[in-house]
């Protein structure tokens, strides 16, 4: 099986997926930024890597098309967004419907968008966390696959809170991908998540 992981930066979620030793699976990593730190790790691990630089494409549809071409070159069964900081168009999302996952650092539907940890602190919530969801055209609002919660502690700042959440991201993303690869996780035609028990 083939998984393509899309990154823009550090790539710690990508690393957690690589280190999860997913069964029978080839992983390729594509970045929209040539200088993404995660690319160096992927190369060191001997994974296939590619760069599709958004700055080299005049329009969003042109970038999306180039990205899809790079993904399809790997025959991807599953496309995993892991800190990928470009918004993808409806055509792109439709093309990978049911095989496109994202991780978002909040308990959706709370705090979509960016700066989620600062948003959580400003709102005064006592519980925060992260969400893996199927991607749909509306930003950060696709059907939820798995979430993990962490406490917000009195002395937290956005960085300490982010670190606590990130540790959970590294647990739930490999879990979601394992379910998908085992055929236990599906997006139904009605747009709902179906999660079935393991064998
Ligand atoms: C993660 O918190 C992810 O949820 C968010 O951006 C961050 C990426 O971190 N979308 P990394 O590149 O996976 O280390």
Automatic annotation (TrEMBL):
GO terms for cellular component: cytosol. GO terms for molecular function: phosphoribosylglycinamide formyltransferase activity. Residues 3-177 form the Formyl transferase N-terminal domain. It holds the Pfam family Formyl_trans_N. Keywords: Purine biosynthesis, Transferase. N(1)-(5-phospho-beta-D-ribosyl)glycinamide binds at residues 11-13. Pathway: Purine metabolism; IMP biosynthesis via de novo pathway; N(2)-formyl-N(1)-(5-phospho-D-ribosyl)glycinamide from N(1)-(5-phospho-D-ribosyl)glycinamide (10-formyl THF route): step 1/1. Its EC number is 2.1.2.2. Coiled coil: none annotated. (6R)-10-formyltetrahydrofolate binds at residues 60, 85-88, 102. CDD domains: FMT_core_GART. GO terms for biological process: 'de novo' IMP biosynthetic process. It is an enzyme of class 2 (transferase). The active site is at 104 (proton donor). It catalyses: N(1)-(5-phospho-beta-D-ribosyl)glycinamide + (6R)-10-formyltetrahydrofolate = N(2)-formyl-N(1)-(5-phospho-beta-D-ribosyl)glycinamide + (6S)-5,6,7,8-tetrahydrofolate + H(+). InterPro entries: Formyl_transf_N, Formyl_transf_N_sf, GART. The record marks 140 as: Raises pKa of active site His. HAMAP family: PurN. Catalyzes the transfer of a formyl group from 10-formyltetrahydrofolate to 5-phospho-ribosyl-glycinamide (GAR), producing 5-phospho-ribosyl-N-formylglycinamide (FGAR) and tetrahydrofolate. Belongs to the GART family. This is Phosphoribosylglycinamide formyltransferase.
